[in-house]
Known about the structure:
The chain has 222 residues and is α+β, with helices and mostly antiparallel strands. It has helices at 2-73, 82-89, 92-100, 118-125, 137-149, 157-171; strands at residues 176-178, 184-188, 196-200, 203-207.
Amino acid sequence: xxxxxxxxxxxxxxxxxxxxxxxxxxxxxxxxxxxxxxxxxxxxxxxxxxxxxxxxxxxxxxxxxxxxxxxxxxxxxxxxxxxxxxxxxxxxxxxxxxxxxxxxxxxxxxxxxxxxxxxxxxxxxxxxxxxxxxxxxxxxxxxxxxxxxxxxxxxxxxxxxxxxxxxxxxxxxxxxxxxxxxxxxxxxxxxxxxxxxxxxxxxxxxxxxxxxxxxxxxxxxx
Length: 222
């Protein structure tokens, strides 16, 4: 009888131990499952944040691309100047640069002329690479006579437009466009502005940009 009782006690003890082991194993498995679910939830939240940031970045890139294309195509409208359009769509840093860049020509050094500095404005906005080549006097003169040989008349608006188009194929954009009473386009040959090319009402030539271009008409390409 005692032996049978002992056997029963041992069996019960084993059953209890087995049950406790199962409970412990289930608890561990449950904890691991919860931890895994929490990790998955955290990962999904991170993925959602990353997707949102990517969407926001793509929207910003798309907006920037639209601004750059508008600048390059000159499609901001007749009522809006390049400078004003860029200020309206610039980042804070770009706007700071637009409002503070150095005016390179003593002939056009008034703040009212800031809007005319096309190359500088386009470079700040990313529409023109900072390493875009500059036009040389030799290139400008050669192109001028090519255009003249095609029948464009000196002093004509058509000549000026065609020269600007071909000059821009090299330089990307003029350094300055404007003037008071005259349509003046200026291409600087170097960042120091020690030599440049001008187009004034269909007359083209080279001059020192620190001088009034009216004085330099004697250097025209004729």
